[in-house]
Amino acid sequence: MAKTILIVDDSASLRQVVAIALRGAGYDVLEASDGRDALAKLTGQKVHLMISDVNMPNMDGISFVKAVKQLPAYKFTPVVMLTTESQDEKKREGQAAGAKAWVLKPFKPEQMIGVVQKLVLP
């Protein structure tokens, strides 16, 4: 059975690039345009990993991670931050919120798949 990954980014083109790479590697993909949209789509279904941008309208990535970690069904779901933010302070904030990995944009699809494979258990 394919593992499901949620991509949260306000850029539709970026979501598409990530989704194509993940689907090519055999994953099912859900997409959301920001943190609030993502929370609305998390209705209890199994999600094996979430990939979230940091800077988004309505609800940014760090707030989204904090909110997701409050939900019993997703408390232990790994979250990867995919962002242009490279400052250590932002990374620490992300880790403190519960993010497991930090991938900088622009990224190579193989790099993203590698991170996903490390975090999604077989």
TrEMBL record:
GO process annotations (BP): phosphorelay signal transduction system
Keywords from the named record: Phosphoprotein
Occurrences of domain Response regulatory (ranges): 4-120
Domain of life: Bacteria
Residues modified to 4-aspartylphosphate: D53
Gene3D superfamilies for the chain: 3.40.50.2300
SMART domains: REC
Name of the featured protein: Response regulator
Annotated organism of origin: Pararobbsia silviterrae
